[in-house]
Design brief:
Number of helices: 8
Radius of gyration: 18 Å
Strand content: 15-25%
Number of strands: 10
Shape: globular
Structural class: alpha+beta
Helix content: 25-40%
């Protein structure tokens, strides 16, 4: 994968689009946002927005056809694969319900009252590595089948879970990435769609930085602390948000969503070159 050049005018244009999304969220709050408990800088939307890098998903990644036979690779001091059937059995033969979850996107939108069914992260790690794994890692590094990567600080894993099904009991849809780890304390980019591999790292250093962290997103990404951008990138992103504040007042939600979807897909295609 090649390095993304933030000075490239084409890439910079799409980075600016991301800043506009945040500016729009801050400058044009909806009625529902005013009445909700959405964090600072967030705007409540009606439905969970589909966002990814727009890359093709390999045909071998098909939890929708494999069902409980679908396996996630787990790499730590040893390498193994754990199937959904094994995880369900380790959880007592049924999925746990994780209800009333709010999904916060770094671009400025929040979707409230989502329900998932799955298993907590600790159970996943115990199933793969045994009890010793829970005290021996500093970073949960996720690798997706479309090449997306993201690292999560182990201090931010409280309440984390593997979401397998939606609230209706169906496997999470293709547009939302199938089984994926969810970290309640973090912005949504920390949850890899099309999850293929979970890798435990003993240090959270540069090797643990993923796609968006390398483009300037914060290492931790805690929404309650408004940890959107790294210190070095914050000035650029905040300046762009200020410059586009008036522009963000025009256009509706459909255009806003379209820009998010197209922008992520474009950056994904650039990085794959």
């Amino acid at each position: 994968m090649s390095t993304i050049d933030l000075n490239d005018p084409v890439v910079a244009k799409h980075v600016e689009h991301k800043a506009r999304l945040r500016a729009r969220a801050q400058s044009t709050p909806s009625t529902s946002a005013l009445a909700s408990s959405a964090p600072r800088g967030q705007r409540v939307v009606r439905s969970w927005i589909k966002l990814d890098l727009g890359r093709p998903i390999p045909p071998t990644h098909d939890p929708w056809a494999l069902g409980d036979a679908f396996a996630i690779e787990c790499i730590g001091r040893m390498s193994t694969k754990v199937t959904l059937a094994e995880l369900k059995a380790a959880n007592g033969g049924a999925w746990s319900e994780f209800s009333n979850h709010s999904w916060h996107c770094v671009t400025g939108w929040t979707c409230e009252a989502l329900t998932f069914r799955g298993v907590d992260l600790d159970t996943v790690l115990r199933c793969a590595f045994g009890d010793d794994a829970l005290a021996s890692y500093a970073c949960v590094y996720q690798i997706a089948s479309d090449g997306y990567t993201v690292g999560v600080d182990s201090r931010d894993c409280a309440g984390a879970f593997l979401a397998v099904e939606d609230g209706g009991g169906s496997m999470l849809s293709r547009e939302h990435g199938g089984p994926r780890l969810v970290f309640p304390a973090l912005f949504g980019w920390k949850s890899a769609k099309y999850l293929q591999t979970i890798k435990l790292l003993e240090r959270y250093d540069d090797d643990g930085l993923g796609f968006w962290e390398k483009l300037g997103c914060h290492r931790r990404g805690r929404w309650a602390n408004d940890e959107r951008w790294s210190e070095n990138a914050a000035g650029v992103w905040n300046w762009l948000a200020w410059m586009t504040n008036l522009y963000a007042r025009f256009g509706g939600e459909k255009i806003w969503i379209w820009v998010m979807v197209r922008g992520g897909s474009f950056l994904g295609s650039i990085a794959a070159m």
